[in-house]
Amino acid sequence: MEIFYYMVFGGLAAVVAALELSKSNKDRVNTSSAFNSFKNNYLLVYSLMMAGDWLQGPYVYYLYSTYGFGKGEIGQLFIAGFGSSMVFGTIVGSLADKQGRKRACVTYCITYILSCITKHSPQYKILMVGRILGGIATSLLFSSFESWLVAEHFKRGFEQQWLSVTFSKAIFLGNGLVAIIAGLFGNMLVDSFSLGPVSPFDAAAIFLAIGMAVILSSWSENYGDPSENKDLLAQFKGAAVAIASDEKIALLGAIQSLFEGSMYTFVFLWTPALSPNDEDIPHGFIFATFMLASMLGSSIASRLLARNTVRVESYMQIVFIISSASLMLPILANFLIPSDPEKKGGSITFSGCIQLLGFCTFEGCVGLFWPSIMKMRSQYIPEEARSTIMNFFRIPLNIFVCIVLYNVNAFPITVMFGMCSIFLFVASILQRRLAAIGEKPKTEDWAMMKERNSEAEPLNDA
Fold it and tell me: Name one GO cellular component term (predicted).
């Protein structure tokens, strides 16, 4: 069956290369040299940040296990990370709108570097501190950088459509090519050079430090709404009111939570799904294949976003339906091609091959999702509270992932995949609703909301 892995990887690589090389003028957006310089600077920083993140991912669980911790203790560490992202990360990430997005990005680098340093200690309490720092850093990574980019893009007077170019390239590089290279580099450090499981974390810290130097030397500061002297509680209240008063923002948050919740659950489930009876599967090679599929999705997204005739709200309905169907495959495969529980080990089964193709399809949808959701966020989320609202979106996501981690052994794997499939189908329904009401401009809603709040404040003071 080993030839099967190479066939899937080679096929995806060929399609990605063909798509990138065959782009015509209508698949590209004509931009200025000033924008290209700005875009390339952001892509360099984003790639370094993602390299720091991807280098750590494959070795976190492995490092904890080498320190002698069991599955339960490691599960608690992971829950602490997501819980930290939900609580502390929301607060720290939301400060970006008031204290500055550049400052928040630098804080991400420092926080994640400190998290990497804690990995040198085998003491559980220190590792727990590292997970808490990592949770805070994750919230900053997925809010502050995008918030800085959107604000700086419009501050420099670039066209709205050009933003989608940066988004699609960032996902193609940071979530695709960089992930593959980081996986291979980490494998080389641990296996080829025998530097131990902590070496990828040291390498990650170096990449983060280089990225921080680029940010400090070349980025300017921007803010959400510095003109109003709001405390953090008032900022949270304003973001909550924005979500509650604008159906488009609420729908976008629900769609994001449903998809990302399913995506993070998939991360925990794909290994036992492909090797239910301890089959020998090449985890690193499969991970690289998934990243290639994600690159394919982002390449398709860049073509779609380059065309003014195609609405992102429309094609994302199809993406969610396809992703829902792809995660139904493990259920169908287990029902139609049941595995023999008595047979242990060996290579991947025929059922596993079918599921792998479905998982690659899902990863392609992930590659389509990221630049598309970024484009919709830039359209619907008000600039004044962008980071705060984006971190609010992550609260239900982190709650969901914590629940899944806590109960990962309580439900059969088919039930978990079925739940994810249902969530993705619900996301497609919500996306259809968003497409129906998406023509209404958000700026008018936000302005009216602020006016209502300002009129209500004197009454409350009285």
Answer: plasma membrane
